[in-house]
Amino acid sequence: SQKIEQNSEALNIQEGKTATLTCNYTNYSPAYLQWYRQDPGRGPVFLLLIRENEKEKRKERLKVTFDTTLKQSLFHITASQPADSATYLCALCSNSGYALNFGKGTSLLVTP
Amino acid sequence: EAGVAQSPRYKIIEKRQSVAFWCNPISGHATLYWYQQILGQGPKLLIQFQNNGVVDDSQLPKDRFSAERLKGVDSTLKIQPAKLEDSAVYLCASSLDREETQYFGPGTRLLVL
Fold first, then answer.
1. Do A4 and B42 touch (CB under 8 A)?
2. Among A44, A77, A85, B30, which residue's beta carbon has the most beta carbons within 10 A?
3. Chain B contacts of A41, Cβ < 8 Å?
């Protein structure tokens, strides 16, 4: 069966450090992968999209890597700030359709 | 630019009652999605519209859930009758087209007692 796995435990890091979140998937052939941020009581907000033929994407302090051989994406936030504290969701869009399939998300807490 | 609007924001009903949610997508967005997000889980797609046609409703429990998108703009999602396990946040999202970034509304938090 298809699975998208994200770190189930919350990630606690100190301000200024780099946060790295993991998204692993099985039985998917994703056309692209997206990362979203979700704050409590709000809908997800799009952050980055990376396509199957891309290895890395950057946007300001954010970096995403995509390894279709390992079936894994890594999401990095450099110079993290307390305002980065949120839940981060990984979502895959397969080649067979256009629907997004989301992981459960990883909660990130950045402490001063 | 106005975002995706949803109403109501909160709803409490008893099991076996019916409930309806409304969504107004971003102007010009052809694709509209309804997701169900249970506490501690990621959003799960219920139905996807392209203009006013259904693209994907494979995960919609059609015995109790229905949705429509009138004139390719606003959409309503209905549950009748509701079950306890329907307690969740119902998120509406829209995108310019099917492969584009999705913009989510704030969601409707439903509690079924």
1. yes
2. A44
3. 106
Domain spanning A16-92: which superfamily? Immunoglobulins (2.60.40.10)
Q: Indicate the domain borders of chain A.
A: 16-92
> Alpha-carbon distance A58 to B62, whole Å?
41
**Distance (Å) of CA B46 to CA A55, A85, B2, B59:** 31, 28, 24, 5
CB within 8 Å: B106 and A34: no
From chain B, the residues in CB contact with A103 under 8 A are 42
B-chain residues near A31 (CB < 8 A): 99
Domains of chain B as residue ranges with CATH: 5-112 (2.60.40.10)
Query: Which class for B62: exposed (0-12), middle (13-18), buried (19 or more C-beta within 10 A)?
Result: exposed
pLDDT in tens, A35-68: 999 999 999 999 999 998 999 999 999 999 999 9
Alpha carbons A96 and B96: distance in angstroms, whole number: 20
Average pLDDT, stretch B86-106? 91
